[in-house]
Amino acid sequence: MKRILIPLMLFLAALSGLGAASYYDTGSQIFTITAGVSTPMSYTSHGESMFWPGSGEGQTHHTVGGIGALSYQIFVTPYLAIGGELGYQFDFSRSGDVSTNVPITAKLTYVPVQGDFDIPISLGLGMDYISYDSYSKISFGLTFEVGFRYYFTESWGVGINTGLLVVPEVYFDRAEKNSVMTYIPATISVTYRH
Amino acid sequence: MKKINMLLITLIMILLSSCNLDSNQGVLQMAYNATHKTGYTITDVYGTYDNGTKVLMNRDHDLWYATTEGNELKQVKVKDLTRSMVTPIFINESGTLFYAYREDSRSEFRFGSASIEDISSENFSFIDNLNQEGAELQGITKFYSTNLNLDECLIVYGTDKETYYCKITDKRTASSLSLSGEVGLTNLKDHAGNAIDTRAATIFGTDALFVYYEDSDLENTPDKLAVIRVDGTSPEAVTLGVDEDNIPMGYDGGYFITFDGDLYQFNDQSNNGYDRIGGFVSDLRYRINHRLVLSNDDPDRNVGFMYRNGVYVRVVNDNNVRPRILSIDNNDNDIISTSYIGHTETTKGEETYDRYLYATQNNSFIILEVGPGTLNSLGSNPRYEYQVDDSMLQQYNPRVHGDISQYTASSN
Fold it and tell me: Model-level pTM greater than 0.80?
């Protein structure tokens, strides 16, 4: 683990260096709208894992779908912002029925590079409303996102993002129902900062 | 700002908690296990012919047969019934289809039989005199039939004043259609001694008839439920508040109905009362919608019932053994109704499995595999223990499960 963490921290420190002086102040705010595609990466149940979109053997039985989110964050330090995000993800099962996720997460974002260009790295933790056909469940949701944003005015910026949406469906009394689904989102975003 | 955030979070939590958002059903598993929909609906299987190689069925209200060609399941349209007044009843093994027919100019049913080829060319023939004893049945204005399995069907028929039903137990070898009117329903009384209107009669089980009516004169008055046995006994109706959406299912030893999400059992000792089966009612989120024929040739057989989320197996003739829900995690959640086609046996290692073939809505054909069956002695009540695993319900694939005729040839 140290082998990963140490280079990562060095990398982030280097990025911070690139950003030079901080752009944001404590209390700065960011509104972001993202939209794009979601690729099902894995489905794990009963100790077995399936990967990537598709209906075949060893695949997740989900199609590539769509994903979007609204987020609001406020900076608590010049480099660290906290806030919340409401997301929506959908794709289709083999039967053609739609499968959806509505993650509602508390979001922590570290912005090592900031100014005309931002590189936000975010971690979200919260709940996820999963639904498929007439079935639904409120479970946990975990998001990880890294982005690159260009501000073409002082306040407005556009960006591209990718990361991971992890959806563990947990039953404390029926372990046989437990599953984990992961998605890779690829989105574009519009950001307003103030 | 903090107050607004707290308010928003509280609002979201209230909204979420006020809705029934948790079905407790393994949502991701449901999505993963969903199978391809075929886009069509099979509602009935009339029988098999051509040495069991063809299964005649109602698909999207038209007449089709299914057969296996090599490793593929092929379905062929026989006749468009959408604008036809033909209602197939069953087909015998020689390929003669028995049907009810109502001409535009008549309000009454006529009955007939014809080969599949004649049906295709609309070369109908009629057999209005149906009774084996020679009495002519006329003025039949209502008619229902249900194919229980490949060799049995139940028929309800009658006039506006009288209703009869009979059971055909040898349809594979039947040479004529005999509606003998075993039991008249005209004398059926409800618990208050009033005559019951049998316009909305539904057949279920192998030996029972379910009848209900709605008391349209009095709102909030529960509907009546009556169960009549083929042996001629006509018990009083039971006031149950039966919902039309509920589907009764039964077998020789008892019958069930879902009501308000719970499962009720009528035992065969007392048709006047009902008992709510405990233990697994909370699992019965969806109504039972099909009676599975399992080990039908065994006097102590089990009977399975399929509901939207699984199968449970009931030990017949043993009311002391509580029915068990055998939830099938990889069950396709679009199984709405099924028609039994037949079953065969298969061997895995040293164990023998029963494979049951069903036609289903939306998913063409499925295999329900049950086994291994180990006979345990419980005093005078022997029973089978069925072990169920995730693979017991599968899409039928001739390459994996064999030719369709191997199911129809040995089934009953």
Answer: no
